[in-house]
Amino acid sequence: MKIVFVGPTLPDAQVLAAQDIVIRPPAIQGDLLRAVRSGASAIGIIDGNFEYVAPIWHKEILHALSHGIKVYGAASMGALRAAECADFGMIGVGRIFSDYAAGMLDDDADVALLHGPAELGYLPLTVPLVNVLATLKHLQQTAAITADAAATLARAARAIFYKERTWSEIIRRARLSSTIDRQCLMTTLKSGAVDQKRLDALELLGLMAHADDHRGERPTGWTFQATSMWKAVANAADEAG
After folding, report:
1. Contact indicator for 134, 196 with CB cutoff of 8 Å
2. In sequence order, which residues have a C-beta less than 8 Å from that of residue 223 and are 6 or more positions away?
3. Domain coordinates of the chain in residue numbers?
4. Cβ distance 65 to 24 under 8 Å?
5. Mean pLDDT of residues grouped by 10 in the chain (241 residues)?
């Protein structure tokens, strides 16, 4: 069984995923453990909750890997965890993962955004920094904006808390030259927007669609340690069902 945890990054994942992939909501602590126990052969992590609940624990990923389960990560919290657990065999996918792995990104909040509930299709209310940077790079490469404007907008975006980062707020804080038509710039930014998180998530779904639906060999370079903290989390997962 292949399982992917995803939400606001790819709201239409259920429609886009291969038939043998089970789509589950953004992961929280304990979800990967339950996936392992339910017989998962491959696990994809795209989105995870973190603000009001315990986030995906690295130990859960190591536990899954120790059972020969392929664990993929991309786009959002999955990219973060993949960069942190790559040395143990987690498979990172996409540009965002690569940027974290290379140290070009280093803040967890760079992939975060404010969004509506699942019932409203995770309606995005802010723009994640990784999408801002991808958009500015694209617009600069196509000569839609200058290099100076792109750099100024990027600096402004980095300084904004993720729950307040919108294109209008980025433009306001950038304090660009008065000769620049702000409404025209807003149109350019929105029409040329690059949703890098979505692109990376789609790449993960594509890889998992072609992954073998069976567990592989257990890793030989390291051994999973069932610490007292791990046992406490495992017991809590049992109680939660």
Report:
1. yes
2. 66
3. 2-108+197-224, 118-195
4. no
5. 97 94 95 94 95 88 96 98 96 98 95 93 96 98 95 96 96 83 91 97 97 90 88 75 59
